[in-house]
Amino acid sequence: MTFAMYTPLVGISILAYVLSAFILSARLGDPNRMRRRALILSLVALVTHVAALIGVFTETSFVKVNLFISLTIITFILSFLNTIRGDHPASLLIRPAIYGLAALSLVTVLLVPAEVGRPIYMTPIFALHMSLALIASAILTLATFYGVQLLYVNRLLKQRSAKAVSHRIPPLMSIEQYFFRLLTTGTIVLLLAMIVGFIYLEDLFARGQLHKTIFSIMALLAFGGIVIIHYWRGLRGRIAVYLTLLASSLLILGYFGSRFVRDIIIS
């Protein structure tokens, strides 16, 4: 069965995400504007998003989890984590972009059959490893969003007076604190995913997995280094964000790069 058979659910989710993103963009200037409408659309988008994923998992018996389905799982986790933050200014500022990314991921999965990609022998240990890896990717991606927001707000404050823009931007310190909190949590989850993989999986260094494993280790070391230096030497600001962007690039190359080659080019 292709994901296209879930067109109604996917279509509703895409529409709800897009409408919610537009409303949230309008709310940046007035936080109380259409608040209930944005909340309802967000809930509809999340519910239909996860319902569509459950449907495709049920039909494929977890044998096919290709690149696009993985991306859709990550964007759901991203959207969920951001939505439960409620009306926190820092979360509201990046929510339209996150919802836009979620809608785009659903479009790509809708266009590509679930059968695309190589089958996966889904053991409980591999399911645990994959789940931890996807959760870590989502948390670290969210941290990257906050890092970019940190650069944006910092630049905004330098270009204009803080008094002129304070009514519509979140406090710089709260963004930075949450950024490092997400970075630390995501790094720990990624470390757990790698430990599970090294202990229980035998093919991490197989020919088709070697570059993925190497890039993932490099990303883990980069994220871990940022976190350690932050708490040990007080690393923060632009340098921390730039290093996070570099580490995220390594993670993307390791996971999505290898999956693109395996699921799209080779298959």
TrEMBL record:
Domain of life the protein comes from: Bacteria
Single GO term (MF): heme binding
GO biological process: cytochrome complex assembly
Residues of the Cytochrome c assembly protein domain: 43-265
Designated name of the protein: Cytochrome c assembly protein domain-containing protein
One cellular-component annotation, GO: plasma membrane
Lineage of origin: Bacteria, Pseudomonadati, Pseudomonadota, Gammaproteobacteria, Alteromonadales
Keyword terms of this UniProt record: Membrane, Transmembrane, Transmembrane helix
